[in-house]
Amino acid sequence: MTPPTAGVRKVGVDLQEATEDTRRVVEAIERDNQDATVSYLPGLVKIQAPGRLVVRRETVEDLLGRAWETHEFQLAIVSYYGHIAEWDDDEIVIKWDH
Q1: What span, in angstroms and rounded, lies between the C-alpha atoms of 28 and 56?
Q2: What is the pLDDT of residue 6?
Q3: Which family, according to the similarity comment (predicted)?
Q4: Please, which pLDDT band fits residue 2 given cuts at 50, 70 and 90?
Q5: 20: Cβ contacts below 8 Å, ≥ 6 apart
Q6: Of 18-22, 32-36, 60-64, 93-97, which gets the smallest average pLDDT?
Q7: Rounded Cα gap, residues 24 and 26, in angstroms
Q8: Helix-strand-coil percent breakdown of the chain, rounded to 5?
Q9: Could you give phi then psi for residue 72, rounded to 5 degrees?
Q10: Are 60 and 68 in contact (CB under 8 A)?
Q11: Which residue would you say has higher pLDDT here, 86 or 5?
């Protein structure tokens, strides 16, 4: 049987692994994206997921123990691939439009 994600283009984001906040953001992404794979490199965290990747403010806040605004995500991003389809106060969604 073929897994449901076979043949789906991956999206991803590379983040600096410099702060405790970034580590909690990575944890939140893992929690909210069951199919995501996370690779730790020196100073960098690569996160990939088939088709769609979401960063939810509520999950990040739960792990940080403080208020977190989605614009703070920009401080950690090194690069991404896919299209930022949504970026509002509650979540960020990276996916391919076609």
Answers
A1: 7
A2: 64
A3: Belongs to the TmoD/XamoD family.
A4: very low
A5: none
A6: 18-22
A7: 5
A8: 30, 40, 35
A9: -65, -20
A10: yes
A11: 86
pLDDT value at residue 4 = 58
Place of tokens 């944890």: 27
Residue pLDDT, tens place only, 44-79: 999 999 999 999 999 999 999 999 999 999 999 999
Q: Sketch out the chain's domains with CATH numbers.
A: 10-95 (3.90.56.10)
Q: How many CB atoms lie within 10 A of CB 58?
A: 11
Structure tokens at 10: 């991956």
Tokens, residue 2: 């073929």
Q: What residue type is assigned to position 25 of the chain? A: V
Single-letter residue type at 40: Y
Amino acid letter, 36 = A
